[in-house]
Amino acid sequence: MSEWYFAYGANMASEVLARRGLVSLESHAARLDDHELRFEEPGVPWIEPVFASIAEAPGRHVHGVLHRLSEADLAQLDQFEGLGYDRRGGLVEARDLGSVDAFFYAARRHVRGRRPSRRYVRLLVAGAREHRLPPEWIDRLAAEPTFHVPIVSHLGPTMMVVIEQLTKRSPRAEAWLRRRTG
Q1: Which entry of 61, 77, 119, 127 is 20 to 30 Å from 6 by CA?
Q2: Pairwise CA distance, residues 127 & 13, whole Å
Q3: What is the pLDDT of residues 48-99, one digit of tens each?
Q4: Closest CA to 174 of 46, 43, 110, 79
């Protein structure tokens, strides 16, 4: 069994899915209508201050990537994304498939006034380019104001990989991350 997942953040990029041990059975450029992209999911201060989320917004839309994932990968993704996001569903318009019933994640907690890291925004842009999302969407992502602290920000990629690996293996690490980001 498999299911469609609409990614609009770092999970658009194949390299991120691979790093997380997930394999997309197929991927398509897609759009979720009546929603907008926001950077308001609390992250890890000084490393990844905030992550992408989406919120209902009539007349707006979010471009992303529709991935078909296996049941095992879905369970793993739910465990990882379930730290700060709620799973929701809706119709997504896929460039090659038309309307598809899919799920996506939306932040359950919201912070305002933080900017995403430069590293994180670069991942979003890379994923959007990889899947040939509309140029105006790529430009919108690339223009997002970012947070960057020399030296500290360069540790971000390594720290995020360590945090991801720990949360996959340890309920204690997961609890620590919940306290840090909540």
Answers
A1: 119
A2: 4
A3: 899 999 999 999 999 999 999 999 999 999 988 887 899 999 999 999 999 9
A4: 79
Helix (H) or strand (E) holding 107: strand 98-107
Residue 47 token pair: 């490393």
Distance in angstroms (rounded) separating the CA atoms of residues 39 and 51: 5
| Superfamily of domain 2-181 in the CATH hierarchy | Gamma-glutamyl cyclotransferase-like (3.10.490.10)
What is the identity of the amino acid at 144? E
SS3 state at 170: coil
Longest dimension (CA), the chain: 45
Question: Between β-strands 48-70 and 2-7, what pairing exists: parallel, antiparallel or unpaired?
Answer: antiparallel
Q: Distance between CA 161 and CA 48 in Å, rounded? A: 12
Write the CA distances from 171 to 87, 135, 163, 168, 175, integer angstroms. 20, 41, 12, 8, 6
